[in-house]
Amino acid sequence: MKALQVSSLSSDLSGCGLVDVPIPQRKDGEVLVRIHAASLNFPDLLMTRGEYQFKPEPPFIAGMELAGEVIEADADSGFSVGQRVTGGAKTGGMAEYASVPVRNLRPAPDALTYAQAAALGAAYTTAYTALVELGDLKAGQSVLVHGASGGVSLAAIDLAKHMGAVVIAATGSPNKMERITALYNPDHTIESNGRFREQINDLTHGKLCDLVLDTVGGDVFDESTRCVTFGGKLLVVGFAGGRIAEIATNIPLIKGFSVVGVRAGEYARQFPERGKRIAAAVSALAEEGAINPAIDRTIPLSQWRDAFTAMDHRELVGKVILTPGS
């Protein structure tokens, strides 16, 4: 089969390439899946450089997230041959086939295409874990979402709008605001370069934000500490801006807000029943048509470099999907 293999770590993707490797042999407790769509996530890019917290030893097949159809499964697995599934693991998704542990798969919502199903899991479970599970979001609350063109942030905007929140979408790329608005119609859009606290103050009529979801870090995090209302929560999802911010503990003490770390995958591993509930809730919302994963583009796996480069250059508004076998 064709697979995108990371043979060595590098800063310029020079250690990556499309290779021919054997179709994986399915083990007990695993499901062999023919992959129709693989979703590119920012950690996939970081792993090619050895910059993600999970550091697989090369060579490994890239790709955390996939959707496809079942080829082989144990009789008691709960999955049947031909069934549409979505899920994945930390690696292995950017290939024509993958053998995936049963616990890492779930039925793909019938309402979604393979591409949409591949784009659903990581982004929406992270957004749901952040906003609903840890943030306790309620209708009418104000939510500031940074990095608004990224997969997780767009999922957060989509989910928060569905739940009746007042959503402020913030991006460092003003040229993306029109596309973000066309996708999910946030209540407000702002540019997150420089100081934006006064804008937030004006938009919320002095109340500031109940929740701030930060995927950027650095200066954006620093300024966000000035935008959280008393009793609110600053949800730390990532550091796409590069600098990992620090905070003096007197700031959350005086302002009375919480800084909450969000690792949806680890949260589900630590609390399996909660993880299952979150995944089921996301699938149900997708099945109802209440949420709609944003896909920027779909390209063949053979053009994988274009996908990684587009992500690295911050060109995307939504997910890029790779299609193995084309």
Automatic annotation (TrEMBL):
Gene3D superfamilies per the record?
Medium-chain alcohol dehydrogenases, catalytic domain (3.90.180.10), NAD(P)-binding Rossmann-like Domain (3.40.50.720)
State the superkingdom.
Bacteria
Enoyl reductase (ER) domain: from which residue to which, for each copy? Answer: 11-322
Lineage of producing organism: Bacteria, Pseudomonadati, Pseudomonadota, Alphaproteobacteria, Sphingomonadales
Q: What is this protein called?
A: NADPH:quinone oxidoreductase family protein
**SUPFAM superfamilies per the record?**
GroES-like, NAD(P)-binding Rossmann-fold domains
InterPro entries per UniProt: ADH-like_C (IPR013149), ADH-like_N (IPR013154), ER (IPR020843), GroES-like_sf (IPR011032), NAD(P)-bd_dom_sf (IPR036291), Zn-ADH-like_protein (IPR051397)
Under Gene Ontology molecular function, one entry of this record is: oxidoreductase activity
